[in-house]
Amino acid sequence: MVEQSGLAPIREYMCDRSQGTRHGTLIDPADQTPEVAAKRAIAAASAGTKLILVGGSSGTDMENVHSTVVAIKEALELVEWASSQDAALQSINHSIPVVLFPQGASALSPAADAITFMMLMNSNDPRFLIGEQVRGAPYVRKAGIEPVPMGYVICSPGGKAGQVGNVDLVESGDVDRAAAYAMAAECMGFSLLYLEAGSGAKTPVGQDLIRAARESCDIPLIVGGGIRDSSTAKDAADGGADWVITGTITEEYDDADEIQRALSDLISVL
Ligand code: 1GP
Asked: Is the CB of 76 under 6 A from ligand 1?
């Protein structure tokens, strides 16, 4: 059991608030081949991302999640080897954790470094509150994947994640509700709280909601959805996000250098 070993390295890494705001990259296995996912992950690593999340709200299964995780891990290992031969590659951080961000119990991989073991706190569906977690726990335990307990709250507009999760969205400006979810997440013992606007959202989680959550709990805050430029990323960081996650921006460019440039700009303001 992870707890009994006394080691929960990824939880410690993700919860280290002394690092300031860090950037994470979401790779959705439904959106590209594992090879392309690995190239995008390496471009993100070169730009300074500090975490790779693998998951999506639909179209993921054991097969595409596992092959995507394996391809990314292998690519990072290759960079590690190559950087020992070539000084020009030494600036690329290859020891980035690859963490599952699953839609449910049937989109897992034993090759991942950890899993955000999450409750979709504002879902109306017991499946996302506890059902998928109970289905997935034996697999996670058997595979020895480190669980990082996380409260997940979807805010307006919510996108596909909001629809699939049958969510009662936290509406823009509803700071009291954001604060209450933050308090509840902390009271329930979650290590992290994730405020999500939905992948590809036209509007990200508002800074007022982020700030309300930040002021209501001491656990690290992850914010994602609709962040595709440096000013939105900075707004989230200034509101108190410990992690800013982007996904779509990495898929908007075909060329690894372009991805690296776009992400470097965004990361430089955090
Ligand atoms: C992760 O859903 C986000 O929380 C990713 O959102 O695709 O809009 O960057 P984008």
From this structure: no
